[in-house]
Amino acid sequence: MYFKEIEFSNTPNFLASEHYINFTKTAVDTNVVADENGKKYVVAGSLLSETGKVVKITRSGSSGSYTYAFSENPIGIVFSTVDVTYGSQPVATMVEGYVITERLQGEYIPDAIADLKAKLPNIKFM
What we know:
Blueprint: E1 15-27, E2 41-42, E3 47-49, E4 57-60, E5 67-70, E6 74-78, E7 82-83, E8 89-99, H1 113-119, E9 123-125
Parallel strand pairs: 8-9
Antiparallel strand pairs: 1-8, 2-7, 3-6, 4-5, 6-8
């Protein structure tokens, strides 16, 4: 009998309601860092741009007056993790629904929520 142990990490469920609408987009491997096994994953809960890249949020300024900038305009939230090790892959992208903000992937998402609401008006952040 063949047995192979595979380790993987899991992301928390970010849905706040069963109501959601997804569209298929293409996720690209640009700027996706490979893990210790050489695999590249676009993780569920990440923001996705129209070009298929994961949107990064950067913070500038000082305490009390931070400003947030998006690497690209997000069009939705990656619904399920996809492996892009060998190139671009289709991915379900959430464009409407209710999410738990703290469970999304990204360092400054809870802080940049006002800007994010303006860019994704059909997604309700709880």
